[in-house]
Every structure is written in structure tokens, then in C-alpha cells.
Amino acid sequence: MQLNNNVTVFILVGLTEDPFRKKMVFVVFLLLYLGTLLSNLLIITTIKTSQALGSPMYFFLFYLSLSDTCLSTCIAPRMIVDTLLKEATISFSECIIQVFASHVFGCLEIFILIIMAVDRYVAICKPLHYMTIMSHQTCVVLVLMAWIGAFVHSSTQICLALSLPFCGPNEIDHYFCDLQPLLKLACSDIYVVNLLLVSNSGAICTVSFIILMVSYIIILRSLKNYSAKGRQKALSTCMSHIMVVILFFVPCIFIYTRPATTFPLDKMIAVFYTIGTPLLNPLIYTLRNAEVKNAMRMLWKKKLVSDRIK
Q1: Whole-model pTM above 0.85?
Q2: Cystine design at 257: which of 36, 69, 202, 267 (Cβ 3.0–4.6 Å)?
Q3: At 27, which helix (H) or strand (E)?
Q4: Are 143 and 65 a contacting pair, CB within 8 Å?
Q5: Count of CB atoms within 10 A of residue 96's CB?
Q6: How do residues 139-154 score in pLDDT, each as one tens digit?
Q7: Where does the record locate the signal sequence feature (predicted)?
Q8: For residue 27, what are the contacts with CB-CB under 8 A and spacing of at least 6?
Q9: Which CATH number does the domain 7-309 belong to among 3.30.565.10, 3.40.50.300, 3.40.30.10, 1.20.1070.10?
């Protein structure tokens, strides 16, 4: 399919073409990316090393942090380096790989958030059967299904994109390779392909968002049967999840549920869900979760003790 293409290299316009602003973007996004890496890796390390965080919720939180780390890493490092270049270019193959990887980890995050909503529903609405329903084997199967679904989704997107010929122009008005700006460069009718892509990504985002919102409404309604202390704890956990869902899905729905047209606002919205949300997720979960904060303190104390022994 790639043999039909005359284009071998794409030019990424980036967030700005102004030299001074490019330096500002470099500093700001380098700090944001480092913050994303440190915060998510801290959560991953804490969950893996802490026996207190052995419940299914933290098992899924581990994979949410993993998907956040990978999603940001697919995009941020190259974008940061590109700000130092006079003209940022990316080969056709690298562009397709970036599209594939970003959609794999973006879709994985969507499925993990759905699984986490299911976990909270069982924990709050069926507390006596929670450990039976959400056994370790069940959790592993759910995460495996999320990985498979993410790969199927992304593979479908790539196959549709590769079915189009690219013969020029080769300037992508974005800071990374994504399907919407990429489709604009195809030198053939993209109506059917674009409809299939919107039906794929747009449907996944919209339907998943509706399912999540409905599930959390059901969960919040069921809290009236809880004691004041139990209601406060469950409400704190659910509100954290709802904040993550809104921050991630609203920008994605805006981007992926319309035809292959781009607006100036698209780049900033894409920054929010590709770099901003992966940074905010660990802050939301740790600042509103006493168990995670206590586990982090214990991890820090163990490190200090081991350093003193050495």
C-alpha cells in the first residue's frame, strides 16, 4: 500500500513557528513531560512494591499510569526535540508508527477507565461479593481484553490510513502525526475512509464516555445507603475517577467525532489530552487518595533506611 505514495517525508508545522516561542515551548513541555514521567513512574513503583495496594483498583491504576506514560512518550520527546530544529520532519514510516502507538495507548486508557468504573460499581454496589467477582484472574483477563481491543482499534485505523495515496503536499499542520491532519494530505477522495475512521475513534470515545457517566451516576445514587464515613470515602474515589474521565474524553470527543477538518484550537486541545492529562491523572489520584499517599511515604522511608544502611 505504501508503494502508491510519492511522499516519503512529512514536515510538522508544530505549535508555533516563532523562534522565541519555540524556546518557550521547549522549556515548558520538557518540564511537563519530566513531571509526567516522574509522577506516573512513582505510582507504578509504589503499587508494585506496596503490599497495602493489592486491591483490584490499584491493579488497574497501575495500567492507567502505564498507558499515560506510554501515550505521553509517544508524542512529547519528539515534539520537544522538534522545537530546537529549524524544520521538523518525520518519515512516512515513523509517522504511521506514531499514529499507531498513540492510538494503542489512548484506546488502552479508555478501556482501563471503563474497567475501573466497573470495579467501583462492584465495590460499592456489591461489596460482599467484591473479591469474588473481581478476582485476580478476572482482573488479568479484563486488562488483557483491553490490550487486545486497543491493538485491534489502532490496527484498523492504520489499515484505513494506508489505503490512501499520499502524493503531496507533505506539510502536517500539527506537532505530531495524527489521523485528522494526515487525512487532509491524501490525494484522493477520503469521504468513505474518514467516515469509517470517525465511526471507529469517534464512536469509541462517545459511547465510552456515555457508559462511564451513566455508570458513575448509578454508583453515586447507590451511596445513599452508606454511612456518612463510607459515603465520603467512596465519593472521594468516584469523584477522582469522574474528573479523569471528563479531562480525557471531552477533548478526544471534540477531535475525533467530526470530519477531517482542523481548527487552530485543535493543537492546544491535543496538548491537553496527550500531555496535560497524563500529568494530571497521577496528581488527581494521589492527592485524593490517602492509601496511595501513605504507601508513598512508606516507600520513601524504606529508601531512606536502605541509604543509611549503605
Answers
A1: yes
A2: 202
A3: helix 19-49
A4: no
A5: 18
A6: 999 999 999 999 999 9
A7: none
A8: none
A9: 1.20.1070.10
